[in-house]
Hints:
Number of strands: 6
Mean pLDDT: 94
Strand content: over 45%
Number of helices: 3
Largest sheet: 6 strands, mixed
Distance between the termini: 42 Å
CATH architecture: Roll
CATH topology: Nuclear Transport Factor 2, Chain: A
Structural class: alpha+beta
CATH class: Alpha Beta
Number of domains: 1
Strand order of the largest sheet: 2-1-6-5-4-3
Radius of gyration: 15 Å
Amino acid sequence: xxxxxxxxxxxxxxxxxxxxxxxxxxxxxxxxxxxxxxxxxxxxxxxxxxxxxxxxxxxxxxxxxxxxxxxxxxxxxxxxxxxxxxxxxxxxxxxxxxxxxxxxxxxxxxxxxxxxxxxxxxxxxxxxxxxxxxxxxxxxxx
Length: 142
């Protein structure tokens, strides 16, 4: 493995981790910077959100849904088993699992499928697809 591959893997892992921390804190404007300008986010059965403005609206709607469902609107995403495939020096794909926990405990779980592109020293989402494999009874997101 070459040094650029190690650096790419580390930077991609940082992007995935930062996404979880920012979404959980509701720091949407910072989160949008993890996507390329024309990036795409597919979340569940919703139509794909194309571009940062549409992605922002999707997250704001999700935040309102979470806030209205709980007196303590808390969510924590736990991401694991990140498998990265470098398809070139400037692009990669990745898959990982997630578990989302709310104030009521485990809420939903599933998989991320991602496509990344390198912009300078950063690796950004070109496309992120989040699909739930299951929901707890009474899930906010079911």
